[in-house]
Please model this.
Amino acid sequence: MKFGVVVFPGSNCDHDCYYAASHAAGAEACFLWHKDRDLKGSDVIILPGGFSYGDYLRSGAMARFSPIMEEVIAFANRGGPVIGICNGFQILTESGLLPGALMRNKHLKFLCRDVFLRAEQDAGRTPFTRNVEKGRVLRMPIAHNDGCYFAEPHLLDRLEGEGQVIFRYVNAAGEITEIGNPNGSLHAIAGITNEKRNVVGLMPHPDRCAEELLGNHDGALLFQGVVP
Amino acid sequence: MKAIVTVTLKRGVLDPQGQAVAGGLKSLGFDEVRGVRVGKHIEVELGGDGAQARERVTEMCKKLLANPVIEDFSVRLEGEGA
Model:
């Protein structure tokens, strides 16, 4: 089992993802440079957080034209598991692998703190959530300026109807509240999957809480889940 | 030739920046302000004739300069009326 972590200019969570894949999930991991076209035989692709291309124009807008993204898109279209974390989620929406868009946080502030997420689908709904049963509340850090999930009403209906909403922002008790939804995301959406359920994007950082020594290893579940 | 692209958030999409700017204007005493939308102004220098340039820049907007999920755009060629 091999994780490929894409490195864009401005990625800053690539090493965290590499560490989570290799230590928390005990898998092989490699870096994939954005100018290359070789996925190096990766079985899972991670688009890490950061500020790819300086977030110029829109967060994630430029990264999708990297040569490696052509291969990642083809890999995803073949059913390969892909996860985008934070800036990686933004890149997935910009590249059309996930629906909707991530907009400026409701209160216009960069948010860097722990939040609570509730798993909205049965375990195994996606390759990354095999170890996360429905209703389970996870604590994870967020660190973003553009994390307010937006989609047109008909698209939101479809996402809800098809069970594509994977994580919602909640309070510690697992309830949806206004304060628990830090960035104003519609339907308190923190993470979604595509129709084929092989691509997952989320704003919170499982990579930054995948080690017991750091006081929280809820995030390790997502990396471990994809390893058979 | 220069094309001027204006990108704005779609009507109905919440614009917190615009709301903050509107609040700022009101606190400065501009009580007549009813609303503000913040957008982007992009200038593209390119070759080709007018009709062709407009078509190409529209294509650029659809592919990169705007995100059609949340944004509208308009294209004006320099020399044309605003």
